Amino acid sequence: MFGKVDILVNNAGGGWNPQDVADLSPEQFRDGVEAEANGAFHCIRACLPVMRSNRWGRIISLGAYGAGEWTDGPVEYAIGKGARALLTRHLAWRERRHNITVNLINPGPGHTAHFETLDMALAFANHGPDWQCRERATPQDIADAVLFFCTEEARFVTGSALAFSIE
C-alpha cells in the first residue's frame, strides 16, 4: 500500500458531544468509543507493516490528559482516549525490536489555544515573544513534543505518555 512510512502522528478520532451517560443511546456510546479507539487502531494497522519492513518508525498518538479520570467530559470520548493510552503501552515494547517507538501526547481537554492568523502561528513556531509569554500550552508546544519524539535523541523513548499541564 505505502512505499515508505516513517512517522505516524495519530489524531484520528471522534467529536466532542457532552451528554449525560443516561441520555446516551447505545449507538452514540459505541460510535464515540469506536471513533477514538478504532480510528487510532486503523491508522496504526495501515502503517505498521511498512514501518516493520523498513525497520524504523515513530508512532505518536494524541490522547487526552487524564482521560481515564474525567468526570465532566463525554464518557465515550474519555474511554476511547483511554484505549489509545492502552494501545500505546501495548505496542511500545513489542515494536521496539523493529526500531519503532510508540508514544502518547496528552494535550489536555479543550486546553490548547487556537491561532487567529497565520502570522500568529508563525510567530509561535519561531518561539517569538508572544510564545515566550504564553500562559497555557499552544499548538506549537504540542508540535514541538511531536517533533522531539521523532528525533534521534528520542530513539530509545517508547511507551511514554507526555502530559501537558492543564492548570
Précis, in short:
The protein has five helices and four strands; from the N terminus they run βαβαβαααβ. With 167 residues, the protein is of the alpha/beta class.
Task: Describe the overall structure.
The chain has 167 residues and is an alpha/beta fold. The chain has one domain (7-163): NAD(P)-binding Rossmann-like Domain (Rossmann fold), CATH 3.40.50.720. Helix content is 45%, strand content 12%. The chain has five helices and four strands, in the order E-H-E-H-E-H-H-H-E. The chain has helices spanning 26-54, 75-96, 118-125, 129-132, 139-150; strands at residues 7-10, 57-62, 100-106, 161-163. The protein has a four-stranded parallel sheet, sandwiched between helices.
Identify the notable features of this structure and list them briefly.
Rossmann fold, 5 helices, alpha/beta, four-stranded parallel sheet, single chain, 167 residues
